[in-house]
Amino acid sequence: MTLRDGDRDALHRVLRARRDVRTGFVDTPVDDERLHRVLEAAHAAPSVGFSQPWDFLLVRSPELRDELAQLAEHQRQEFAASLPAARARRFAGLRVEAIREAPLGIVVTCDPTRGGRHVLGRHTQPRMAAHSVAGAVQNLWLAARAEELGVGWVSFFRERELAALLGRRVGMPQHLEVVAYLCVGHVAEFAAEPELATAGWAHRRPLAWAVHEEIWGHHRMDPLDETLAALADLDTAPGEAAAREHLTRMTVPPGALGGVAEIGVRLAGLAGACPPPLPEPAVVAVFAGDHGVHARGVTPWPQEVTAQMVATFLAGGAAVNAFAATVGAEVQVVDVGVAVELEAAPGLLPRKVRAGTRDMTVEPAMTRDEARAALRAGIEAARDLVTAGNRLLVTGDMGIANTTPSAALVAAFTGAGAETVTGRGTGIDDATHARKVAVVAEALALHRPDPADPLGTLAAVGGLEHAGLAGFLLGAAALRTPVVLDGVVSGAAALAAAALAPTASHAWIAGHRSVEPAHTLALEHLGLAPTLDLGLRVGEGTGALLAVPVVTAAARALADVATFDAAGVTEKELE
Ligand SMILES: Cc1cc2ncn([C@H]3O[C@H](COP(=O)(O)O)[C@@H](O)[C@H]3O)c2cc1C
Ligand SMILES: O=C(O)c1cccnc1
């Protein structure tokens, strides 16, 4: 079969115009000829060993569709209950199925026994049977689009529950896997963008992030270079000016919103618009790593506590979880450098660059390449979390001994001495503190880090979580997404990030001021005013999370507070 002129363009038009449709189905029945062409397209799909493991069950019965819709509704409620509060609010407005509205349902199944024992290619990869069926679904979907039929793939079913119902009601054999339930029908219109993108639930990733050139992680443009280039052009002035002008017209006395107004201005600057979008949902990314300098006795806690606390975060039992639940935020742990292997778990991003740093009093804590890899991991974490629909990022840290490299970084970037920057971390006695000051001084004397070389400084006296956090702060700013900074570890990372790209700090809000002396110095150097000052010295993201409602209120004030004009409130007379 040869292709004709125009086929390529037609194919790409159909590919781009295909939508996953959950809303806007109309009653018009699907005629048999169209349906036949669509099913033929599905049946023409490639399959493992040419096993063609698919079957198509056509469901028109309103009664059966109603029962299926009830199953899906139940799963929807379970999913909603599992979400952090701000995500759940967003989810409440989304449609996930149109089982009753679409006049036709197509159940697409996979028969893992089709073709007998010797299906070529399935002997090594049994999942290939189901993957083949997914290819048939995609063919069906594209052909349906070409026939002006909408398709929505519903997976809000527990697989066994769905199979059991279909077994009872239509005699579906129980050795089959249900790969897809498709809602099919004519639609009022095809949306230009995916419904979930329009709703802001998630965004499309640029193709370049997904393409690796020869070596994993090598993209046509290096993520760090790409981020720094984007930040060079970050102009927040127009949005800031719009917010300042709007503030003068809001029904509050001039200046009375104090620091809250300043946060609003920052958000508007970053968004390039006033009012800025509501900064929710929020997610805290807890960057975790271990430290070679632990061997020098700078903390009374054993190194294992880092991994144990990560397990506690993932189990939901730490301070960060309690505070995140309070403000409705999600918790993600990013392992950039924990000393031991961590088991895969929901909420854990495995991005280990190495198993802990080297002892900075003996040699550089990391190589420059390792520091760069951790920066990249941080940038990519920010990209992931922003494209997943988060509108506010929050920093956190976990790493026994990490207040020591934090002090060294703050000393390097501010010029302050070891005795000024070195605090008591988790709470250490005088003897340990004296040793810690000496260790910081020793590392600084050994490396003489140059603040004009932020990568070298991070590598010499930083931690993997500091480098990861620095990347995260840059990545978020490049995507014009605000970040709330936690304590001294985030502050030290922010100094490195600001040295790499000064404009990035426009995206940052200091969540709180910790009792660590280096944190105060870092905030002063960054020109950031802390939102809260509660005497916290935990890390993990705790202080930053508590500031999230203040940040949200700042955005909401710009959106919701009436102007003198609109409310008919008389303005003050000239003095
Ligand atoms: C149980 C426990 C929970 C923590 N959560 C945060 N950190 C905080 O304390 C550590 C840094 O302090 P230092 O430099 O004195 O070791 C980091 O892990 C930081 O996240 C904790 C520390 C401990 C012991
Ligand atoms: O204030 C902080 O950020 C801090 C203090 C002690 C230990 N870890 C973090």
From TrEMBL:
Pathway connected to this protein: Nucleoside biosynthesis; alpha-ribazole biosynthesis; alpha-ribazole from 5,6-dimethylbenzimidazole: step 1/2
Domain Nitroreductase span(s) in chain numbering: 15-186
Active site location: 540 (proton acceptor)
CDD domains per the UniProt record, alphabetical: DMB-PRT_CobT (cd02439)
UniProt-listed Enzyme Commission number(s): 2.4.2.21
Entry annotated with the keyword ATP-binding: no
Keyword Nucleotide-binding: no
Molecular function GO labels: nicotinate-nucleotide-dimethylbenzimidazole phosphoribosyltransferase activity
Alphabetical UniProt keywords: Cobalamin biosynthesis, Glycosyltransferase, Transferase
Reaction catalysed by this enzyme: 5,6-dimethylbenzimidazole + nicotinate beta-D-ribonucleotide = alpha-ribazole 5'-phosphate + nicotinate + H(+)
Gene3D superfamilies xrefs: 1.10.1610.10, 3.40.50.10210, NADH Oxidase
Function, as annotated: Catalyzes the synthesis of alpha-ribazole-5'-phosphate from nicotinate mononucleotide (NAMN) and 5,6-dimethylbenzimidazole (DMB).
Protein family according to the UniProt entry: Belongs to the CobT family.
Name the record gives this protein: Nicotinate-nucleotide--dimethylbenzimidazole phosphoribosyltransferase
Species lineage: Bacteria, Bacillati, Actinomycetota, Actinomycetes, Pseudonocardiales
